[in-house]
Amino acid sequence: MQPFSRFLVYFLAVARHRSIRRAAEELHIAGSAINRHILLGEKQLQTPLFERLPTGMRLTAAGELLYGCARRWVRELDDLSRQIDDLKGIRRGQVDLLAPEALSRAFLPELVTRMKHSHPGVVLNLNIRDNRRIHHALLSGEGDLALVLDPEEMRDLTILRRMSFPLGFICRPDHALARHAAVRLTQCADYPMVAPEQPLALSAVFSRLMDARRIIPDVAARANNVQMIISLVTGGIGIGFLSYLDVMSEVMRGELAFVPLVGTHVPHLTLALVHDRTRQLSRTTHVVENIIEDIMSRHVT
């Protein structure tokens, strides 16, 4: 069911993309048709909603007001639809989950598998986003729940569950380091290392830890991609500095060993399950929440 007029659907798409062309590509509608409906809407409201700029479309003050109201209508309709679904039970339904790419290798596949076994009629829509933009996307109504790494400003969100993943070194199972339950940085200094590079957030952490201990690492290679670091370590190039979250699947399969790094200056990676505090969660969403919380509790190291 599409409860909104064509004008409002087109308006939201243009406002989101700041471009009629990109809105047309998303909606599979001719750009001229979208522009015609926008012009008719502006004529009816007797005010321009967009500034037509060489770089694209920018909302006017009136357009910002309409955009804010329209997003609220979408969220309220979505909440209503979920409450109606609750009246029908949780045999069917769907839940939108926002998550960073770091969870796509082990955490999210396990979640989908468990959902299909326990509630095969429920569709879990996984939206992989830049971790820095998940907060805004959730508050914009683009998800029901979100998993966020190292959350900062949580004023508008409710934290349902929080857990920490240790940072440490990964190595092959036959490496001498794999015999340790935990290590200090000085114990790893003599081993060749695969160092993380920007834009990986661990790059700054790695440099800060090395500087604090005045250690010059024996860098065998550098990589700005987690999978590349894993591949180089698997190939015997050296040990790699990552979080347990990054190598969860390889460790569980016995392909790699993870040795937590201990010390006063060693931070942890935090993962939080959150939702918009202004929205009521449906029964279906609570099912997904419970499964996520169970997975998080079982992966605490």
Describe the secondary structure blueprint for this structure:
Layout: H1 6-17, H2 20-27, H3 31-45, E1 50-53, E2 56-59, H4 61-87, E3 93-100, H5 107-118, E4 122-129, H6 134-139, E5 145-149, E6 157-171, H7 185-188, E7 193-196, H8 202-212, E8 219-223, H9 226-234, E9 239-243, H10 248-252, E10 257-260, E11 268-276, H11 283-298
Parallel strand pairs: 3-4, 3-5, 7-8, 7-9
Antiparallel strand pairs: 1-2, 5-11, 6-9, 6-10, 6-11
Helix pairs in contact: 1-2, 1-3, 1-4, 5-11
GO molecular function: DNA binding; DNA-binding transcription factor activity
Protein name: HTH-type transcriptional activator CmpR
Domain HTH lysR-type: 8-60
Give a structural overview.
With 301 residues, the chain is an alpha/beta fold. It folds into three domains: 6-68, Arc Repressor Mutant, subunit A, CATH 1.10.10.10; 90-163 and 270-298, Periplasmic binding protein-like II (D-Maltodextrin-Binding Protein, domain 2, 3-Layer(aba) Sandwich), CATH 3.40.190.10; 164-267, Periplasmic binding protein-like II (D-Maltodextrin-Binding Protein, domain 2). It has eleven helices and eleven strands. It has helices at residues 6-17, 20-27, 31-45, 61-87, 107-118, 134-139, 185-188, 202-212, 226-234, 248-252, 283-298; strands at residues 50-53, 56-59, 93-100, 122-129, 145-149, 157-171, 193-196, 219-223, 239-243, 257-260, 268-276. The strands form two sheets. Strands 3, 4, 5, 6, 7, 8, 9, 10 and 11 form a nine-stranded mixed β-sheet that branches. Strands 1-2 form a two-stranded antiparallel sheet. Strand 1 (50-53) and strand 2 form a beta hairpin. It is elongated, with a radius of gyration of 24 Å. The two termini are 45 Å apart. The model has no long low-confidence stretch (mean pLDDT 87).
